[in-house]
Fold this protein.
Amino acid sequence: MSKEAHPDFQLVQASPEFTELRRRHRSFVFPLAAAFLIWYFAYVLLADYAHDFMSIKVAGNITVGLVLGLLQFVSTFAITAWYVSYSNRRLDAAAEAIRAEIEDRAPARAAAEGGAE
Amino acid sequence: MKGLQDSSWLNITIFAVFVAITLVIVLRASKNNKTAADYYAGGRSFKGWQNGTAIAGDYLSAASFLGITGAIAINGYDGFLYSIGFLVAWLVALLLVAELLRNTGKFTMADVLAFRLRERPVRIAAATSTLAVCFFYLLAQMSGAGGLVALLLGISTWTGQAVVIAVVGALMIMYVLIGGMKGTTWVQIVKAFLLVIGAAAMTVMVLAMNGFDLSRLLGSAVEAGGKTGAALLSPGLQYGLSDTTKLDFLSLGLALVLGTAALPHVLMRFYTVPTAKEARKSVVWAIWLIGAFYLFTLVLGYGAAALVGAATIKKAPGGVNSAAPLLAFQLGGPLLLGFIAAVAFATILAVVAGLTITAAASFAHDIYANVLAKGKTTPAAEVKVARRTVVVIGILAVVGGIFANGQNVAFLVALAFAVAASANLPTILYSLFWKKFTTRGALWSIYGGLASAIILIALSPVVSGAKTSMIPGANFAVFPLSNPGIVSIPLAFLLGWLGSQLDRRVEDPAKRAEMEVRSLTGAGAEKAVQH
């Protein structure tokens, strides 16, 4: 916490810039988190209860279970790359702008009269 | 296994070289250990890739390297299935935890909870569950050290193993005392690098022997397995024995995927980088390294089944854990075995060091500085307490490791994940994302999750009632599963919600606003230390 005048975080929280940042963040991470958890547990349930299906050979000794397991690796890597690119494009600049606003203008604004945005 | 024991001097020499190199690094890193941020968080000056490598070093314990390779060699597909949960779990850390935690906390998980809840009670609760997870994990690592010594150095007497455990413990205390988080991080980085390189080299050798054809490798594993070989390719050898074991695996999968992002020593690593963006990069690096490593173990496990054979592995000292060292000997003779053995030792050393500094930080920062001294202490005094705690925890780990040696305590790692997923993750997520979360919700969730996980384990077949139990003579196993997660995790989430609903106290909306804004923007987050 900075020693200088405390910025009014409730005002920032209510600002359209911050509401938009929060919407962008949550509308991306929540559905994606739900999706990968469902996909992981679907895989675990198949491996746990559908032994015959998972043992079907697709090519040579490569089974359905091995392919699905390797796909878990692929999806994990893909989600990682997707999140990084989304953050770079849609989150970082917006977060940076709000932070600069708070950290640079907080002392100046406190010195001024109202302290409103 | 004659070859294994003959080369024990070579193994010790290679390990000694590792210790010498890391000691020099630790001594160099310790020059700037002045403030609490230096000691606990390495001055917050690590780069994303460095911290990501250190996270991989922390996470890929002897249990995952030796344990998973062995599990695939013996149980085939089920060993692979186990490794997947360990990887997918990192998406929870990446998407929901790492960056927001870095932006709101300083050193420990309790910092995040104490931001907008009542400080004293939540700090005590968070420190209690942190210390519990660290203790279970530490004990598992140290007791595993005994078996590893028997396997790699040919020391089979209990006294001999106790001496080696004490030496490993003393080395670890020295690293953490001198080097703090910076030194510990460098040990993790060196170890992760050696481990991944070693595993990659062995993977290429195994694949080359099979014409870089995975199907052919699987075929040779099946052939070497004889009558039961074909089962190696299908799920069910380990977890599919009965309806109980199936449910047990589901419970384990839940704990693995939700526990990783709430392991205290993982959480603490996010504070060693200067910004949330570097915390994100850390997790990305960790995911690539850990993912690549588990792909290697798939090849190594089936490679060990094909080249060494399940029967030989089971008979070797160390059992399942001997698959990777035996494969190394088969592939590259005593030199490669020596390298892999040294890496396995370094692994225990590094993981134990990471756990110890986390536990010490939690005790000194949460309990001593903020609860006992009520914030009226200096960072220098706090670090002094942390260093003393390191010595105490180190001694406890050595004594615990010596007495747990030979006991069946493999369940402790799974228990650590289950406690982290039950006691830590719900409160972390609620306090980051849920407006109406209150102190009572946090306390109910932490204590409820912690107590239910431990009580269910105590009443399960891992402690009593079966031939493989810790206390085989008694039978008070009323809970049929060996993994409590499927009950304790939903219970902790429920308690967190219920406690908050029933709490008449409303938490300060200004604090809540500050936390939300800071978590997403990084405004006012702790900066890197300038030297």
About this structure: Residues 158-209 of chain B form the longest helix (52 residues). The domain at 2-521 of chain B is CATH 1.20.1730.10 (Sodium/glucose cotransporter). Chain B has a mean pLDDT of 90. Chain B is about 75% helix and 0% strand.
